[in-house]
Write a structure and sequence with these properties.
Blueprint (H helix, E strand, L loop, with lengths): L2 E3 L10 E6 L3 H12 L2 H4 E7 L5 E2 L4 H6 L10 E3 L1 H6 L2 E5 L3 E5 L4 E4 L4 E3 L2 E4 L3 E3 L18 E2 L4 H11 L6 E5 L3 H12 L3 E6 L11 H13 L3 E4 L3 E6 L5 E6 L4 E3 L2 E4 L3 E3 L2 H5 L8 E3 L11 E3 L4 E3 L7 H16 L13 E6 L2 E7 L9 E7 L4 E8 L2 E8 L5 H8 L24 H4 L5 E3 L4 E2 H9 L5 H8 L9 H12 L20 H11 L4 H8 L9 H12 L12 H5 L2 E2 L5 E3 L10 H13 L4 E4 L5 E6 L4 H8 L11 E6 L13 H12 L8 E6 L13 E7 L2 E6 L2 E2 L3 E2 L2 E6 L2 H18 L6 H8 L1 H9 L6 H13 L33
Parallel strand pairs: 2-3, 2-10, 3-6, 10-22, 12-19, 13-14, 13-19, 14-15, 21-23, 35-36, 36-37
Antiparallel strand pairs: 1-6, 4-5, 7-8, 8-9, 11-20, 16-17, 17-18, 24-25, 25-28, 26-27, 27-28, 29-30, 31-32, 32-34, 33-34, 37-38, 38-41, 39-40
Length: 838
């Protein structure tokens, strides 16, 4: 259903009617530039967008897919719905333009709406290019189930739903350019097995030469992503019921897949313009003022247009075009012209820093070509010089010279005689001094078109912290690779006036207190509900994003003595189960140490049959997961199981994985099973800033994977145990750091509690131990927790003892629900995808 966001303006003026077809990054940026030039006094602005949202940052979708951001993230939504009302812009979202009458000067929409214009801007962007492949589409033209592009929120949502539906999803990404590698990286962090297929001979062939592509390939393969270059995909393989099963190649080989992501390039979206009779080649042909050929009042901007035979797929040229077009149609500079863009790219690809500009290699015999190639460290650098001018550069891994090379590429600094010094700090400006020496018109943030001059002006207008500057200019709000340089420029521009962003240390955005200060304030004022905390400690009132971290913190402080309120908890925490993509829930009963009995197994089987539970799956934490339980059945399932909660749904102590230790193993050096059960019995279900996964292994062969857990214990013989903390083996891979070596199971259990309580009190919300431990430092943790340097271990022990004594199995809510609606079904709210029954 189209959404009409119309400003209320009773004033009647002779404003001209400006219509913008397209509410993406180019269209909305152009409107911003027009408004900044007084355009609201000249035009009644109407925008048409086929997605049901305001303008959002497509670059951030990679971060959403990888879990580094969410669809609710402020950095994703550039112009929320309120922005249009506040700026007097009428937005028809969820509608699409289907026809342009150039002579009647009208735009007709899919909804039937007809909109008059005096000036028309076409900003329809690009579409994903889907190569000709057998099986790619259904008979009605829709993409086959399991096939995605990677261009919209809808694409990203679909991939996330499929990636998290089960543990063994396999994906093939077709296209090894920037977008394809970002898709592969994001899916890998979601636990998906990923292969990238690329028909050219090396990755990112548009930006990198063969050697650079080889270095990048090594980095991508280190992430666990399969890379297949020189492979042309000819078919999407499907089962009899139409489900995707893999891809086939021109050489007759194939790869299995449940999901296929096509990132084989983009094509300008020109069909609307073509049907209107505008001149189309690769894109909509425009002149230097972005005016469509042979038109007086129709313009085009962004990826849909073709200027001087060039079409652009990066955002920086879009911003330059938007500035020129705004100057022209507002009259701010009626003679403004766009002469094309010299492309420089600086970004982070799947965690790897890349910078590229100009040509990829020498093209003439007398071109100077300097390379540095070190595959072991993942570093590649090259420059191409012609007639004493830099015409190309490439940096991969170490991009510290990118700022100097960008200026040299724009002919703003002279080249050193020793060309090698362009790649290393040998007489040219270093990374540290580069911020001061950058020219004002150097683009610092390619994603949002922010120059050094913009940042300096922002500081001079009164913004003296990095966060203020980023919020006002949007610098650093895209891929994030420019944030260090943004910080350097702010520091350079602000000088002694630089202010530290104190809010970076606040536990939640709306309360100006660090976590220890917040805990102290809550205790002193005896605040036991989220609303009380907001009322007493949040100067500007409540913030919805703070509810979950605050409710978690209150449970850490007060245990069962906190006051639970509606809306303070995520649905998982309200119903003590993990919601699935089809609206059903996952139930994981506790199996301490992974040990079960015939009686428990019979109960699980009986419950699954009784409640028609479609899937039972062994988890990585040595438990059984009952998937597909209806919300209203949860209390009855728990009662019939007669087993405690396994906490597979919350930010809490989850499980302790064990090997068989000395019970049966011929190599066992310690009773890992008994110790794992003892740890889980003592610390089960403890609330924490993020989930805690533990393991105890009975010998250094590490069958229980204790080296990569939040808290891992390894028997090393002679009754001794090594304790490791801060490990990870999911979206992030990290071997735990050695906290201590102890000589008894009792000491392991004691130190486990001390570490957990310190983590509960000091960690940021959602900060896993693999980030917390390096942030604090393992030597510092040893000094605090093992050596008791600061004399706080006694207090930590006392508070963890209180938390343990306060434990209540949450599945006992089945006897007395916390609210009438706690276990009442609210489905279906909307059509949901169905989880397959196996």
């Amino acid at each position: 259903m189209p959404v009409d966001v119309t400003p209320h303006d009773d004033a009647t003026t002779a404003k001209r009617k400006l219509v913008v077809v397209g509410n993406g990054m180019a269209g909305a940026r152009t409107v911003e530039e027009i408004l900044s030039r007084g355009g609201s006094e000249l035009f009644d602005v109407t925008m048409i967008g086929d997605e049901p949202y305001g303008n959002y940052n497509r670059i951030m979708l990679s971060h959403v897919l990888s879990g580094e951001a969410t669809l609710d993230d402020d950095d994703l939504m550039l112009n929320p719905m309120a922005w249009y009302r506040e700026n007097g812009v009428t937005l028809y979202s969820g509608d699409s333009a289907e026809g342009i009458d150039r002579f009647a000067k009208t735009v007709t929409c899919a909804s039937g709406r007809v909109i008059d214009f005096d000036v028309l801007i076409i900003a329809t962007g690009s579409n994903t290019f889907f190569p000709n492949m057998d099986g790619l589409r259904e008979s009605d033209g829709r993409l086959a189930r399991g096939v995605f592009g990677f261009r919209t929120i809808s694409d990203t949502n679909g991939m996330l739903q499929m990636a998290t539906a089960r543990d063994d999803v396999r994906a093939v990404v077709i296209g090894g350019g920037l977008l394809g590698l970002e898709a592969a990286y994001g899916l890998k962090t979601q636990g998906v097995d990923v292969d990238v297929v690329h028909s050219p001979g090396h990755l990112m062939n548009q930006q990198l030469d063969e050697r650079g592509g080889k270095v990048l390939r090594n980095k991508i393969e280190e992430l666990g992503v399969g890379v297949h270059t020189g492979k042309r995909t000819t078919a999407v393989l499907r089962t009899d019921d139409g489900t995707v099963s893999g891809v086939g190649f021109a050489d007759g080989e194939s790869l299995p897949a449940d999901m296929i992501v096509v990132t084989a390039g983009i094509r300008p979206n020109v069909e609307l313009a073509r049907s209107a009779g505008l001149v189309i080649e690769r894109g909509i042909v425009v002149d230097d003022q972005m005016r469509c050929e042979d038109e007086g009042s129709i313009y085009a901007v962004g990826e849909c247009c073709q200027h001087r035979s060039e079409v652009y797929g990066l955002v920086a040229p879009l911003w330059e075009q938007a500035v020129v077009l705004a100057d022209v149609i507002t009259g701010a500079n009626p003679h403004a012209e766009y002469h094309g863009s010299r492309l420089t790219t600086k970004l982070k690809v799947a965690g790897v820093d890349v910078a590229a500009m100009g040509v990829k290699g020498p093209e003439r015999e007398d071109d100077e070509f300097v390379q540095f190639y070190e595959p072991r460290s993942g570093t590649y650098k090259s420059v191409v010089v012609r007639d004493n001018k830099l015409i190309g550069a490439m940096l991969l891994g170490d991009i510290s010279k990118a700022n100097f090379l960008t200026q040299a590429f724009d002919e703003k600094v002279p080249l050193p005689e020793e060309r090698i010094s362009m790649l290393f700090d040998m007489g040219t400006p270093s990374a540290e001094t580069g911020a001061a020496e950058l020219a004002d018109d150097v683009q610092v943030c390619n994603c949002n078109g922010v120059t050094k001059g913009d940042i300096v002006s922002c500081v001079q207008s009164g913004c003296t912290s990095v966060s203020e500057v980023c919020a006002k200019t949007r610098a650093g709000k895209g891929c994030g690779s420019c944030k260090p340089l943004v910080g350097d420029i702010v520091e350079f521009a602000a000088g002694d006036a630089l202010t530290v962003d104190k809010s970076a240390d606040w536990y939640v955005p709306c309360i100006p207190l660090t976590k220890p200060e917040l805990i102290d304030a809550i205790k002193r004022q005896d605040l036991r509900s989220v609303s009380e905390v907001f009322e007493n400690l949040a100067p500007d009132g409540e913030d919805a994003t703070a509810k979950m971290p605050l409710s978690s913190l209150l449970r850490v402080i007060w245990g069962t003595g906190w006051n639970r309120e509606p809306g303070a908890l995520f649905v998982n925490d309200r119903v003590h189960a993990n919601i699935q993509r089809d609206g059903t829930f996952s139930v994981v009963p506790q199996m301490k140490g992974g040990v079960t009995s015939p009686q428990q197994l019979r109960k699980i089987a009986d419950v699954a049959e009784k409640y028609d539970i479609p899937m039972i799956k062994a988890t990585g934490g040595q438990r059984l997961d009952l998937l597909g339980v209806k919300k209203e059945d949860l209390p009855k399932v728990w009662a019939d199981l007669g087993m405690p909660s396994g906490y597979a749904y919350g930010k809490s102590f989850r499980t302790v994985k064990t090997c068989v230790g000395t019970d049966y193993c011929r190599f066992g050096l310690g009773d890992s099973t008994a110790l794992g059960i003892a740890i889980e019995t003592r610390y089960q279900g403890l609330e924490s800033p993020a989930k805690l996964k533990l393991a105890v292994t009975g010998c250094p062969r590490n069958c229980a994977e204790a080296l990569c857990k939040d808290f891992g214990v390894v028997a090393i013989g002679d009754g001794k145990w090594e304790i490791l903390v801060g490990g990870a083996a999911g979206a992030h891979i990290r071997k735990g750091d050695l906290l201590a070596t102890v000589d008894s199971p009792e000491e392991v259990i004691r130190l486990c509690g001390i570490f957990i309580q310190y983590y509960r009190e000091q960690a940021k919300w959602l900060e896993r131990t693999y980030a917390f431990v390096p942030r604090i430092g393992i030597e510092e943790l040893r000094a605090i927790l093992v050596e008791d340097r600061d004399g706080i271990v006694g207090g930590l022990q006392e508070r963890i003892d209180e938390a343990v004594a306060d434990y209540v199995d949450p599945w006992l809510d089945r006897d007395e629900p916390r609210s009438p609606a706690q276990f009442t079904s609210a489905l279906p709210l909307l059509p949901l995808p169905q989880v397959p029954v196996r």
